[in-house]
Write a structure and sequence with these properties.
The protein contains nine helices and twelve strands. By secondary structure, the protein is an alpha/beta fold. The structure holds NADP nicotinamide-adenine-dinucleotide phosphate. The site of NADP nicotinamide-adenine-dinucleotide phosphate (NAP) has 27 residues, from α5 and α8.
């Protein structure tokens, strides 16, 4: 039950109705006996300015931000963190004293899952990333901080990988960055980590983004997609003996970090993980 003292948090994006975020945040609020709720706000591009401009009046204490607003929201905020600046996108907003602060927890969430749960240390490793959009930016900034040997990118739109690589080269002088014209050109055979940062795999009719022959048993294949839980890419990677992960762990940790930013409390990770996994099973 909510009252006038209930703190409201939520997700803005379009569309958002299939999001699993309310499950994990509401489970956390309930576990910690907090008078708070997490809601979904479908906000179209043309409504963003009005919505963000009235957060304090709406009594909203914090938001997650998803497609298509992660970049467009930046000029509407009072300040953004160094990480969000480097990534060029915001996925978390904290509202305090009528001030709007922007953060990006996607990259940190990804790296936390990669190291804490999957035991992968990026230092000195060769990494391939397919896709150079918003999620790829967040992931590659955090991977770059972990000092890999190299990161190679392929995006269907070469101008996006070029732009991202130029940006990363300026900020991470000790990492080698490469651009490929094709998945085949990525040199996956020599890589320890392959990340799918495209939406390919979400739809049943999607092709498998990588040919089976390119995969091997000594690689970790991380698909940012979590619905379905096992994409065609993960299926063929598993059949090659590779270690695999979908994007549910990244979703969990980016949410946990956002929770801590909003509330100042340690996120009950296992409660949030349980709620997410249960939600994912019924997708
Ligand atoms: P995005 O900004 O649209 O970026 C995707 C990029 O992949 C675009 O540059 C796109 O090019 C490119 N692309 C599309 N098809 C391709 C193909 N066949 N080969 C190579 N490149 C291709 O999307 P995003 O926000 O980065 O999200 C990417 C995926 O990550 C989505 O599935 C999203 O749900 C997932 N994600 C997961 C989490 C998590 O917590 N697990 C967090 C964020 C995002 P075009 O624009 O030209 O199509």
């Amino acid at each position: 039950m909510t009252s006038s003292s209930t703190k409201t948090y939520g997700l803005i994006g379009y569309p958002v109705k299939h999001s699993l975020s309310p499950l994990m945040h509401n489970a956390a609020f309930s576990h910690l006996k907090m008078d708070a709720e997490y809601r979904l706000f479908e906000v179209k591009a043309q409504e963003l300015g009005d919505f963000v401009g009235s957060l304090s009046q709406k009594n909203i204490s914090g938001l997650n931000v998803t497609i298509p607003h992660k970049e467009k929201v930046i000029p509407l905020l009072d300040s953004i963190s160094e990480e969000a600046k480097l990534i060029g996108a915001v996925n978390t907003i904290k509202v305090s004293d009528n001030r709007l602060e922007g953060f990006n927890t996607d990259g940190e969430g990804f790296l936390k899952h990669l190291t804490a749960d999957l035991g992968f240390e990026a230092q000195g490793k060769d990494i391939c990333i397919i896709g150079a959009g918003g999620a790829s930016k967040a992931v590659s900034v955090y991977l770059s901080r972990a000092k890999p040997g190299s990161i190679s990118f392929y995006d269907i739109d070469k101008s996006k990988s070029s732009e991202l690589v130029d940006h990363l080269k300026e900020n991470f002088k000790n990492v080698e960055f490469r651009i490929s014209d094709s998945v085949e050109g990525l040199n996956i055979k020599d890589c320890s980590l392959l990340v799918n940062a495209t939406p390919i795999g979400m739809k049943e009719a999607d092709p498998c983004i990588v040919e089976q022959d390119l995969l091997h048993k000594d690689i970790l294949v991380y698909d940012l997609v979590y619905n379905p839980g096992e994409t065609k890419l993960l299926k063929i990677a598993k059949s090659k003996g590779a270690k695999v992960s979908n994007g549910l762990g990244m979703l969990l940790y980016q949410g946990a970090i956002a929770f801590q930013i909003w509330t100042g409390k340690t996120a009950p990770i296992e409660v949030m993980r349980g709620a997410l996994e249960e939600g994912a099973r019924s997708l």
